[in-house]
Write a structure and sequence with these properties.
With about 700 residues, the protein is of the alpha/beta class. The protein contains 18 helices and 37 strands. Strands 18, 19, 20, 21, 22, 23, 24 and 25 form an eight-stranded mixed sheet that branches. The chain has a seven-stranded parallel sheet with strand order 9-12-8-14-16-17-26, with helices on both faces. The longest helix has 18 residues. GO terms for molecular function: serine-type endopeptidase activity. Belongs to the peptidase S8 family.
Length: about 700
């Protein structure tokens, strides 16, 4: 028997899509692996078989077997497995979505949100089914159990996949914490008086507390194999979910759609009326790092809220310095303060300065606070018996707080230099670290430094990320048996934890989409996406230098999204035409969509996809004039008239034709064209404005972004 764990981790397994045709339409048939191999590949090579929503299989194959199958008739594509990485309540109040919002209880209880993540902790109070009726009749899923795991009328489904077979517990139970945190952020019930050791105390709740949750465990601490992601999409679509929340992305960054499991799975989802919300990634603030860039996905950036968690350090001279950490421990005593680089006898100065485990001399460190040069959860100082640690890793700005295994704080570049100067000029430097506290952040919302930025590296005419949501210092449910830091000696156990990441922003948007869905169950995924984007709250460009490449359309406003007035609707064939125009082969498009297409019939420009935002890459230092065509559907007042307004910018000339559109009925469509002209823009620059359609009640806002690339 082959070692699946070894082969999957090395990405030697292959995902293959085989579709046989009967007449004009595809039929759901998948050949077994042995049917493709002249030698008779062993049955135990089959990892997954996809045959409910799309056709194909994943198998552990040698290079020779992969090549042999790829050459066979009927095989669209064979590509290697990819490991995806995970991208984690005051947040709802901050975006203007209080507990008292208007709800449609019956319709909300019919909404099923699917979570692709690390599983779930079913015993959490956030997933109690007290007062819940049985699951909706459309539900067609299962609840896999490990003997102790059970579902209920709130948590209606749970499935696990062979993450890394033979080494990990095969259970839908969450042993990492990430999945429980995201699931409760989307649809957790209100739980009063939660906190992390008294920090960030308040009521925890999801966006749609009455909605149902279905969990698909595709990840563990080592990652999320792409074949598991595809299998989960296949199951979720067949199970009857309405919204999917996917807080993960490819390690290597944005992928060609024909090789991206999330892009393929989510395309099949939209054809069944299911919207996928995906985290944008945590590789910011570098440009072009955004993932989840397919136009049918709702890509989510992370921003701050008006609650900031800080941990102060008080030097022996009484000087107090503010740092960013979630120090759950009580304040330390005032003890000697030392530099890690000076307390080693067996490691290099770099390793000691970074406080690498087993590098610090216990006799020199025990009972002291040590300064470390590299961000880490604190294993080195903890093993050496340190009283605490200060991380001064040279970041100019720290905008989120981290958790450590011992009393700790993290200082920005300026504060770090200040503490080191104190050590160098003081005979017996001392310090104490205080317990964390919450303060008001008046600058929020600001896109987090870690949040991945655009421009979109795959589809140059599609602005990504799409939208921004709270993703910094978010408190939500957590498994009591999951480690807070991953360090064995850290024995803390909590039911609610504070995490940061675009992983935490993604479920906010999935929850907002589920809220909109509860009012408009008939709306398409594109209509829900448009409603969220065009009603988003504009972000402050002066605090976000990458402007729309950081925050997309702005910060979600779920209440306004319920009544957007107009929506930009998009159909499956529109996306297929875009793929043709963008240069995807008919074979690649078949792999993505499952449909046989003829790209020779594709006309128009990629910028004419009926998207709620507008973007174009223009040549540097040359004048430009380009058109965008769009259509909007009336979902507001049956009889209404909208007038176009464009925010003036001296460097752009924007005209809208017609600039007034009138409707006589609901669901009526009207088309218009936007012309954007300007003089040459410098290399590597971004210029943006926005178009707003208003009838005096609704404001339907679309960003317009012109940008140039780097000099080549």
């Amino acid at each position: 028997m082959r070692d699946f764990t070894r082969e999957l981790y090395k990405s030697n397994s292959a995902i293959s899509d085989y579709t046989s045709h009967d007449g004009d339409g595809p039929t759901m048939k998948t050949r077994p692996v042995s049917a493709f191999s002249g030698d008779g590949v062993p049955e135990d090579c089959l990892v997954h078989s996809y045959k409910r929503s799309f056709n194909g299989f994943a198998a552990a194959l040698t290079d020779e077997e992969q090549q042999k199958i790829a050459r066979m008739d009927g095989v669209v594509s064979v590509f290697p497995s990819t490991i995806y990485e995970l991208h984690t309540t005051r947040s709802w109040d901050f975006i203007g979505f209080p507990e008292t919002v208007k709800r449609m209880p019956k319709k909300e209880s019919d909404v099923i949100v699917g979570i692709l993540d690390t599983g779930v902790w079913p015993e959490s109070e956030s997933f109690s089914d007290e007062g819940f009726s049985p699951p909706p009749k459309k539900w067609n899923g299962t609840c896999q159990t490990d003997g102790t795991f059970t579902c209920n009328n709130k948590l209606i489904g749970a499935q696990y996949y062979d993450i890394f077979a033979f080494t990990d517990p095969q259970t839908p139970r969450d042993l990492e914490g990430h999945g429980t945190h995201t699931a409760s952020t989307v649809a957790g019930r209100e739980v009063k008086g939660v906190s992390l050791y008294g920090i960030a105390e308040g009521n925890a709740r999801g966006a749609v507390p009455s909605a149902r949750i279905a969990v698909y465990k595709v990840c563990d601490s080592r990652g999320c194999p792409s074949e598991n992601i595809l299998a989960a999409f296949d199951d979720a679509i067949a199970n009857g979910v309405d919204i999917l929340s996917v807080s993960l992305g490819a390690l290597s960054g944005a992928l060609n759609y024909s090789r991206d499991s999330v892009a393929i799975g989510s395309f099949h989802a939209i054809t069944k009326g299911i919207l996928t919300s995906q985290s944008a990634g945590n590789s910011g603030p570098e440009a072009g790092t955004v993932v989840g860039v397919a136009p049918w996905i709702l890509s989510v950036a992370a921003s701050t809220i008006d609650r900031e968690i800080i941990t102060k350090v008080v030097a022996g001279d009484g000087t107090t310095t503010l740092g960013h950490a979630i120090n759950t421990f009580n304040s330390t005593e005032t003890v000697p303060l030392i530099l890690g680089v000076n307390v080693t006898s067996n490691c290099s100065s770099t390793e000691a300065g970074n406080c690498v485990a087993h590098c610090l001399d216990e006799q020199l460190v025990k009972g002291k606070i040590v300064i470390c040069e590299k961000f880490a959860p604190g294993e080195g100082p903890l093993l050496a018996g340190a009283k605490g640690q200060i991380v001064g890793d040279g970041k100019k700005n720290i905008d989120y707080s981290s958790n450590f295994a011992l009393p700790s704080t993290r200082l920005d570049l300026r504060s770090g230099k200040k503490i080191k100067s104190y050590i160098e000029t003081t005979k017996k430097p001392q310090a104490k670290i205080l317990k964390a506290e919450s303060i008001r952040d008046l600058k929020a919302p600001v896109v987090a430094s870690f949040s991945s930025r655009g421009p979109n590296p795959i589809s140059l005419s599609i602005l990504k990320p799409d939208i921004t949501a709270p993703g910094v210092d978010i408190i939500a449910a957590f498994p009591p048996k999951a480690s807070l830091t991953g360090i064995e000696q850290d024995k803390r156990s909590v039911k609610y934890h504070i995490l940061s990441g675009t992983s935490m922003a993604c479920p906010h948007v999935a929850g907002a989409a589920a809220y909109v869905k509860s009012f408009h169950p008939e709306w398409s995924p594109a209509a829900i996406k448009s409603a969220l984007m065009t009603t988003a709250f504009p972000m402050n460009a002066s605090r976000n230098p990458e402007v729309e490449f950081a925050y997309g359309s702005g910060q979600i406003d779920p209440l306004k999204a319920v009544d957007p007035g107009l929506v930009y609707d998009t159909q499956e064939d529109d996306y297929i035409q875009l793929l043709c125009i963008d240069g995807y082969s008919e074979k690649e498009i078949k792999l993505i969509s499952g449909k046989k297409v003829a790209c020779g019939n594709a006309t128009g420009s990629a910028r004419d996809l009926n998207y709620p935002s507008m973007q174009l890459l223009v040549e540097a230092n040359k004048s430009f004039s380009n058109n965008f065509t769009r259509s909007v559907t009336n979902v507001g007042s049956p009889t209404s008239t909208y007038k176009a307004t464009v925010i003036e910018d001296p460097q752009l000339q924007v005209t809208v034709n017609p600039n007034v559109i009138s409707f006589k009925s609901l669901n009526e469509k009207q088309s218009f064209a936007v012309t954007v002209a300007g003089k040459g823009l410098p290399v590597n620059s971004v210029l943006s404005t926005s178009l707003v359609w208003s009838d005096g009640i609704h404001s339907v806002r679309s960003p317009i972004v012109m940008y140039t690339g780097e000099k080549v």
